[in-house]
Design a protein that fits this description.
The chain is α/β, with parallel strands linked by helices and 454 residues long. It has one domain: TIM Barrel (Alpha-Beta Barrel), CATH 3.20.20.80. Helices cover 30% and strands 11% of the residues. It is built from twelve helices and ten strands. An eight-stranded parallel β-sheet has the order 5-4-3-2-1-8-7-6. A two-stranded antiparallel sheet has the order 9-10. Helix 2 packs parallel to helix 4 and helix 5 runs parallel beside helix 6. The longest helix is centred in the middle third of the chain and has 18 residues. The protein is globular. The chain starts with 7 loop residues before the first helix and ends in an 11-residue tail after the last helix.
Length: 454
């Protein structure tokens, strides 16, 4: 592979764009009482100050600033037998394998990335459909240009599609913000489901409503979200009865005020608002599974007992369990307590960051915790293995982050979570992609075509 040569004339306009970007409210200082969410960058070309970090800037016309050099794969992880137990309607195995991608702006990049996803033997791809980008001109005025192409391309590669439906935070929009926009949003979701009936397998309803910035800068309101969920579920099921409806995943936070609400409090508030039955609200509960500073098998109580593993967060011990991947088990226990033992969890985002920037708020649980690219790859594989061994039959989709937006650079927080380096037309391998490719192909008795020495 030959790297693209970057000249100062190509790079400096994008440096000027990157300089003004600032992170939103930061996590990571000592005695902090809020855990930062796994990042959920959008594909919109808008600079928005948020927590998680800013949305991407405009799509560059050339190759993005040079990412890290390609990384050789780690030793091939030993494959285990693919779980054969299916749950519910059989659409998802337990667990099932997904990755989040950014397919919106450039057809040729989307084509390359979908090929990489298929080569790695993922079965699902998650893609964000921004409400503003599709119905931004006004009620009922839809632009299906990008979504038609994305659905066509995904089908071409034989992948299943989970679509996140939500709005870009803090951007003026004719429909306003939730909860006032609930009816219009449900109508929008219904239109999407009708257009792609039988072609989009699952829909995620909104994103991280336990953060005020995702809820019109209003205090998080689980009862209001439950109303949105019910209206959206009804519309999607009317348009496409076979489509799966998944709740939003919640940001992993220990803060409980006008800015954020802990996920366990928010989920319980949803169940309270649903009156003891989630029937008619969702098919699968969405969750986020941030790895933080520890291995995927780590007992959350171990994290609670060791201040360095939660960055000296002074919150109540039961809230500190959020700093472990296995916090997903707490979410499962809450579901069972509320009578939902027969429904599954879909992990809509999970991963480990390798952020090595000393001044980054993510450093303490990235490079500062010893998470390098080799460790990141090993942890991602072990997370799938742990789920297969301990979470059947209730675990469904598990969505690794990310096949990146090609415009990200080392200054973007999202860059450090990604399983390959950003760039096009060259592919910049990282150990995480190679490890997952070897592992997922091995489950089916295949080899990873991109891995050397196979």
């Amino acid at each position: 592979m030959t790297k693209t040569r970057l000249t100062w004339g190509v790079v400096w306009p994008w440096l000027l764009l990157l300089v003004p970007l600032t992170l939103g409210p930061l996590l990571g200082s000592c005695a902090s009482s809020i855990a930062s969410a796994t990042p959920t960058p959008t594909k919109t070309p808008l600079v928005v100050a948020i927590t998680p970090p800013p949305a991407a800037t405009a799509e560059p016309k050339g190759t993005a600033a040079a990412p890290a050099s390609p990384v050789a794969p780690t030793t091939a992880p030993s494959p285990t037998t693919r779980p054969v137990q299916t749950v519910g309607d059989g659409t998802m195995t337990s667990p099932d394998f997904a990755v989040q991608a950014f397919l919106w702006w450039r057809e040729e990049v989307a084509d390359r990335d979908l090929q990489l996803i298929r080569d790695a033997n993922f079965r699902w791809v998650k893609q964000y459909f921004s409400w503003q980008d599709i119905e931004g001109a006004g009620k009922g005025q839809f632009d299906w240009t990008h979504t038609d192409r994305i659905v066509d391309q995904t089908q071409k590669y034989g992948l299943k599609l989970v679509v996140r439906l939500s709005a870009v935070p803090d951007v003026p929009f004719w429909a306003g913000t939730p909860p006032q926009s609930t009816k219009d949003f449900a109508d929008f979701a219904t239109a999407v489901a009708a257009r792609y009936k039988g072609r989009v397998q699952a829909y995620q309803v909104w994103n991280e409503p336990n953060l005020a910035r995702e809820w019109g800068n209003k205090r998080p309101d689980p009862a209001a979200y439950a109303k949105m969920l019910k209206a959206t579920y009804t519309g999607i099921k009317h348009a496409d009865p076979q489509a799966m409806v998944i709740t939003a995943g919640m940001a992993p936070t220990t803060r409980n005020d006008d800015v954020a609400m802990p996920d366990m409090y928010f989920y319980q508030g949803m169940y309270d608002a649903m009156g003891g039955s989630s029937t008619g609200y969702f098919d699968v509960l969405g969750a986020h599974g941030t790895g933080w500073a520890v291995a995927p098998e780590t007992d959350p109580q171990t994290v609670v007992n060791d201040p360095k593993l939660h960055n000296n967060d002074p919150s109540a011990p039961e809230l500190l369990r959020v700093y472990a991947f296995r916090h997903v088990e707490d979410v499962r226990a809450l579901m069972v307590k509320n009578g939902d033992k027969d429904k599954r969890i879909a992990i809509l985002e999970f991963g480990w960051t390798t952020d090595s920037r000393p001044n980054s708020p993510y450093y303490w649980f990235g490079a500062g915790a010893g998470i390098d690219e080799k460790t990141q790859g090993e942890y991602l594989v072990r997370a799938y293995q742990y789920a297969a061994a301990h979470w059947q039959p209730w675990i469904g989709l598990m969505t690794a982050i990310y096949i990146p937006d090609v415009q990200w650079t080392r200054e973007d927080e999202q860059y450090w979570w990604s399983i390959i380096g950003p760039g096009y037309p060259d592919s910049y391998w990282r150990a995480a992609y190679m490890d997952l490719c070897i592992f997922l192909n091995g489950l089916d008795g295949k080899t990873c075509k991109n891995a050397p020495h196979q």
